[in-house]
Amino acid sequence: MSRWARRTSQDFLFPPGSMTDPAGLPVELTDATFDSVIAEGVALVDFWASWCAPCHALIPVLEELAEERSDTVAMVDVSEFPGLGDRFRVTSLPTLLVFRDGVEVKKLFGVKNRRQLNNVLDEARSGMGERQSTRLMTVMSRCAP
What we know:
The protein is of the alpha/beta class. It has a single domain (27-143), classed as 3-Layer(aba) Sandwich (Glutaredoxin), CATH 3.40.30.10. It is 39% helix and 19% strand. The chain is built from five helices and five strands. The protein has a five-stranded mixed beta sheet with strand order 1-3-2-4-5. Strand 2 (42-48), helix 2 and strand 3 (72-77) form a beta-alpha-beta unit. The longest helix is centred in the middle third of the chain and has 16 residues, at 53-68. The protein is globular. Mean pLDDT is 82; it is low at 1-20 and 131-136.
């Protein structure tokens, strides 16, 4: 059984400069806390629902990442906060978004293993994901009428 228990970022105090649960568990985000939690540094956000079996398979991987990494690892229950799912165009579960300083740099679909997620977070830390996103926006703007 998973150690993850439903928690919101208001349920505990974070160490200074950190938005990681001191117990090393993913932080559950709400409409009110989402923007402030992803605003600085690298954040991995899992959009999930309690009825989604693949989402439950991902929880142990997220717990390991939360314990091992200094990056923020968080979860959004789209059944409770559908506005966040709509805002980020989440159409399948689980969907994982990676943010760097509040900017989405990567979107992943489905269950991923720890190695895959570590690689994605390392890319985001090095700025590669952000450059790819900027490059895509530049190409798209050139194609616009």
